[in-house]
Design goal:
Layout (H helix, E strand, L loop, with lengths): L1 H12 L22 H4 L7 H20 L6 H4 L4 H13 L15 H21 L6 H10 L2 H14 L5 H26 L8 H20 L5
Helix pairs in contact: 5-6, 5-7, 5-8, 6-7, 6-10, 8-9, 8-10, 9-10
Amino acid sequence: MAEADDRTFLGLSDVSISEDIPVEGEITVPMASHSQDEDYSTLDEPVKETIIRDLKAVGKKFVHVMYPKKSNALLRDWDLWGPLVLCVSLALMLQGGSADSKEDGGPQFAEVFVIIWFGAVVITLNSKLLGGTISFFQSLCVLGYCVLPLTVAMLVCRLVLLAGMGPINFLIRLIVVIAMFAWSTLASTAFLADSQPPNRKALAVYPIFLFYFVISWMILTFTPH
């Protein structure tokens, strides 16, 4: 057996490659293609372009809320700049109201701010506990942006209150607040309903209804000094 192996190696040692046979070819290493977006870094862009780009993104989300439809735009490119602006604007417009108490001037800025953000956090935690498939900040983004119709309602109510406190003015405010309340609720559910299990959608929508109802009640009961 050993002699046979030796003869095999001896035969292989006689095999040689002739110099007349050309050896040609190329060795190429496939490189991953880089898209233009990967090569572009936002760290190198001017501050002005960054601000304009962010403002355009916020404006597009406002359009999605005012014309609600099933879309992943708010979920895919979420941010909290729009909700922050809406929350601050609504809290500022609710300043200076007269309450039943002679000493208190209505809901203060911090109270409105805490009610909105605390309510959004509770709804988000409820959604996660029910088995929702969206992230914590995505839910906050949707709930915050959907305050936009109620912010518009607050602005309209402030303008109507400039004309006085008559029953006609209250009726106009009531219609506006109810319409914007329905708009906010429908817009938020259009974005968030599909992220919930089919048999638990009602449990997820009910807190959203209460959240916007509380905000609507603060707007409707607002009366200036």
